[in-house]
Amino acid sequence: MDQARRQLMIALDLPSGEEAETFLSHWQGEEKPWIKVGYQLFYATGPRWIYERKQEGYSIFLDLKLHDIPNTVAKAVESISKLGVDFLTLHAMGGSEMMKRARESAEQFASSSECRTRLLAVTQLTSTHEKMLHDELGINSSMEQAVLRSAKLAHQAGTDGVICSGQEARAIKEATEPSFLAVTPGIRPIGASANDQKRVVTPTAAIQAGADHLVVGRAITHAPDPLEAYHQILQEIIEARGKLR
Ligand SMILES: O=C(O)c1cc(=O)[nH]c(=O)n1[C@@H]1O[C@H](COP(=O)(O)O)[C@@H](O)[C@H]1O
């Protein structure tokens, strides 16, 4: 898979396995895209569907945003690791002990170290803005400080990277290390509606900020021609990468 395709992940926020498969048939004859499966599709289909897609050769990001006591999360990671998914999310707000136990489980239950499920910690959701952080969550720092605090905690606890907005990707890389993954949802091509997202950036801005992967849902899934929308974003990634050199 070329670099740009590896970087672009489609959030398959769709209601059933059947609809997801019909949607993915747009890519027939092309390399399989990276797919992210979140609450809606996972609760509709379950682990078997994920396992089957993995067997078909999809790279899968399972976005279950685990957040519970350390033992419960460790046991969940144990079950999920057996599916062989590539990425899995958990909330950094669950704390360092929870994240460490998750990492231990992922290592223990991977069928080999190359296929260990990589753990990504959610810092602050991209639907959160600074006023919400202060007024609703009781966090009295700036958004960047709050995100960096979670990212450093996740890094120390042994996660492979974080979910953040492209607005914070650069600062996270500087505060941790370049290989610590910055995966950025809240991607909006110029002119696209932000919907419920608050901290949005364009594909170009995310690449310029050093994002490793871009998660794109509605800009592709709701497009009249999803494959064309996917290719337009791929092209934008390729051009932005070209300008980095
Ligand atoms: O963990 C995620 O993937 C995630 C974290 C976050 O902070 N913000 C966020 O939007 N996401 C997910 O990324 C996708 C974004 O979808 P669109 O807004 O439609 O592009 C959704 O599937 C969200 O669940």
From TrEMBL:
> In this record, what's one Pfam family?
OMPdecase
By what name is this protein known? Orotidine 5'-phosphate decarboxylase
Q: Which CDD domains match?
A: OMP_decarboxylase_like
Q: Name one GO biological process term.
A: 'de novo' UMP biosynthetic process
Q: Which GO terms describe its molecular function?
A: orotidine-5'-phosphate decarboxylase activity
Q: Name one GO cellular component term.
A: cytosol
* Chain residues that bind substrate: 13, 36, 63-72, 126, 188, 197, 217-218
Q: What is its EC number?
A: 4.1.1.23
Q: Does the keyword Lyase apply?
A: yes
The organism of origin for this protein: Baia soyae
Catalysed reaction equations from the record: orotidine 5'-phosphate + H(+) = UMP + CO2
Its biological purpose is as follows: Catalyzes the decarboxylation of orotidine 5'-monophosphate (OMP) to uridine 5'-monophosphate (UMP).
As for family, the record states:
Belongs to the OMP decarboxylase family. Type 1 subfamily.
Per the Swiss-Prot or TrEMBL record, the active site comprises D63 (for ompdecase activity), K65 (proton donor), K65 (for ompdecase activity), D68 (for ompdecase activity)
Q: Which UniProt keywords apply?
A: Decarboxylase, Lyase, Pyrimidine biosynthesis
Pathway in which this enzyme or protein is active:
Pyrimidine metabolism; UMP biosynthesis via de novo pathway; UMP from orotate: step 2/2
Quaternary structure, per UniProt, is: Homodimer.
According to the entry, every stretch annotated as the Orotidine 5'-phosphate decarboxylase domain falls at 7-233
